[in-house]
Amino acid sequence: MSKPTTREIVKKAWQLGIVVPAYNIPHHPMMEPVVRAIRDTGSFGLIQVARLETVKFKAESFKAIRDLYEKNKDEKYTRLHLDHVPVIDEDGNHIDYVKEITECMQLGFESVMVDGSRLPLKENIAATLRVVEAAKAFNVPVEGELGAVIGHEAGPMPPYEELFSSGKGFTSAAEAEQFVKEVGLDWLSVAIGNFHGAIAPGRKDDKKVEAKLNIDHLKKINALAKVPLVLHGGSGIQKAFLREAFKNGIAKINVGTNIRQPYERGAAESVKKGQDLVYQAMLDVIRVELGVEGTAAKLLN
Length: 301
Fold this sequence. Notes:
TIM Barrel, 13 helices, single chain, alpha/beta
C-alpha cells in the first residue's frame, strides 16, 4: 500500500478540524530532536525549510536539509515541505523562484510554497500559477500566500493592537476565492492577525507578542476559498484562538520561533544543550500549544 501523500494528509486535517504543524529547521542540529519529539508523541508534522533560513541562518541549502531529513525521517509521522520561496524577498530582491522551487521538487520535497504576497493580486496570481504548472509534473501540492504576514522585514513594526484593529494587510475573502479558483491552488496561507518572528539582526531573540486571530474573518475566507488554509507565524498565538482556527479552516500551522530560540540559547553552551531544549520545546508545542499529540493515527489511516 502506498503512503498517504502530503496533499491527502492536509486535506484530511482540514476535513477533521485538526492541524498539521510544520516545523522550521534553520540550524541542522535541530532536525533530530524535532523528528524525535514528533515520533514520541505520535503526532504528525512537516519538516520544512524556508529560503531565508539558507541565507540568514545556518540551514546552508535546500539539498543539505533534504539530505539531513533523509537520515532522520520517519514516514509514519513526517513529510518534507519547502517553506517560503518568495518572488520578492524581505530585502526587496527579485528571486528566480520557479527555478529554485523546481530544483527542490527534483530533490524530493513533497510539498512546496511560493510567496507572491508582496505583489499586486494579478501579479501574485500569475507568479503562483507558474509554480502550480511546474508542480504538476511532480504531483506535488502548492501553497500560496495572500495578504501581508509581516515580521521578516527590517525596521520597527507598528504596534500590534493597531495592526489587528485596523485589519491592515488581512487577506481579503473575495480575493482569496478569486486567487484559489484562478490558480488551482492546494493550500492558501492567510493573514488574520498572525505575524512572523523577527529575523533582523538584534531582533531575532525578541519575544513575540501574544497574537490574536480574527476568527470571524477566517470563517469568511474558509467559506469562499474552499481549500485548506495555512497560518504562518504560529508561535506565540493565544491557545483559545488557535483552537477556533483549527475548527474553521486552518489545516497547517508553521512553527519557528518557539523552537529556534530555545536551540540558539542552549547552543551558546553546547549543541547537546540546544538539542535538549528543542526537544522540550517541541513537547510543549505539541501537547500544550497545539494539542496535536496522537494525530498521526487519525491522519495517516
